[in-house]
Design goal:
By secondary structure, the chain is α/β, with parallel strands linked by helices. It has one domain: NAD(P)-binding Rossmann-like Domain (Rossmann fold). The protein has an 8-stranded mixed β-sheet with strand order 3-2-1-4-5-6-7-8, with helices on both faces. The chain is globular. The chain starts with a helix and ends in a 12-residue tail after the last strand.
């Protein structure tokens, strides 16, 4: 499960009663797929590693730019022009070299989405509706839990869909649209680095909550406003008109 070295790294966390041997086994065995290593994905990945998770797949086609450095905390100016997934893997292995990290330096598409099939949970942090829609459909069809997180300006939204068969509720139920939309992007409307960081941390905690059942996170939309330090949780309901609803 964990080596002596790893137990030393995580020793302060493992004091907490919530991190029992059973729960530690679940975290060590969990397979996490993160789509997008941007302002949310970087702190998300780092804090999942810092929390004892060990098995990851990262998907991102981008190279690091100067404009990323205010919020993408795995990178610094020496990393500019390098592949995000490559640098992220190297940095995270410096925290725990026993992590297993598989990287994909291209977009999720219909030809490679099968790589998500063995995921315990898929976390989508992209700002592309086309990608979000594709991943959501795949998760529904394969009954794989999907955690969706996005941020723009000072506001974020995070939702976990368990995608159980015969109990349909998915991303499209909440945001119904079969067309490819142009979503607000940080390069056009702006983004707070703090908002991105907080969103990544909350998403990391929700991931752990789900994996070891610390808190009920399924079918809840969390809305965060950083300026007001305000987090609201909204209970979601199935949309019977959702085109993915087969139950």
């Amino acid at each position: 499960m964990y080596s002596d070295f790893e137990y030393e790294i995580f020793s302060r966390q493992f004091i907490l009663k919530q991190f029992s041997e059973t729960n530690l086994s679940k975290l060590a065995a969990a397979k996490i797929s993160i789509i997008g290593l941007g302002g949310i994905g970087c702190p998300l990945a780092k804090y999942l590693v810092l929390s004892g998770l060990k098995n990851f797949k990262f998907f991102d086609e981008d190279f690091i730019e100067n404009s990323n450095l205010n919020r993408q905390i795995l990178f610094n100016y020496k990393d500019v022009d390098k592949k995000k997934v490559t640098v992220a893997k190297d940095k995270l292995l410096m925290i725990n070299p026993n992590c297993q990290i598989k990287i994909f330096d291209n977009k999720i598409n219909k030809n490679n989405i099968f790589e998500l099939n063995d995921s315990s949970i898929i976390i989508d942090t992209t700002d592309s509706w086309k990608t979000m829609k594709l991943v959501n459909e795949y998760c529904v069809n394969k009954s794989i839990p999907l955690l969706s997180a996005s941020v723009v300006g000072f506001d974020a939204q995070i939702a976990l869909f368990q995608n159980k068969k015969n109990n349909h509720l998915c991303l499209n139920c909440v945001f119904p649209n079969k067309e490819d939309l142009d979503l607000p992007r940080c390069d056009t409307v702006g983004i707070s680095g703090i908002a991105a960081g907080m969103t990544g941390l909350i998403t990391a905690q929700k991931t752990i909550n789900f994996l070891i059942n610390l808190n009920q996170e399924t079918n809840i939309l969390s809305l965060l406003n950083v300026i007001k330090s305000d987090l609201q949780n909204i209970n979601l309901k199935k949309n019977i008109k959702c085109y993915l609803n087969k139950s």
